[in-house]
Design a protein that fits this description.
single chain; about 120 residues; mainly alpha
Length: about 120
């Protein structure tokens, strides 16, 4: 096949495989946790909130303030990384593409950080 077709095809296929793998493993982890809880209930074990939180061990257990801060930092870092990657090209067309792609996550990250800073969390 032509390299002009294979390179984008490989990039999109690897991205799709990564996303599908993440959700698949996340689902398997949740099913295993629910089976453990089900067995504990069948055996008559007393389930405390601390035990359930320890069993779930998910990011959902994190307070909203921490989530906003983490998302903001990650998105802003992704935008900055795209901007820095644009300097790796000598041609102006790829530079512009990387800079335009980097604007969206950078503004999203700045928005999350603004929400983190301005919001009065109850936790």
């Amino acid at each position: 096949m032509d390299p002009e077709i294979m390179i984008p095809l490989t990039v999109f296929a690897s991205l799709a495989i990564t996303i599908i793998s993440y959700f698949s493993f996340s689902h398997k982890n949740k099913v295993a946790t629910l089976k453990t809880i089900e067995k504990a209930v069948e055996n008559g074990t007393n389930l405390t909130p601390e035990l359930l939180e320890k069993l779930s061990n998910t990011k959902a257990a994190q307070p909203a303030k921490v989530k906003d801060l983490r998302r903001g930092i990650w998105m802003l870092a992704l935008g900055v990384a795209c901007f820095v990657a644009s300097f790796m090209f000598s041609d102006s067309e790829p530079q512009e593409v990387f800079r335009v792609i980097g604007i969206f996550p950078a503004f999203l990250g700045a928005g999350f950080l603004l929400v983190w800073k301005l919001n009065r969390y109850q936790d």
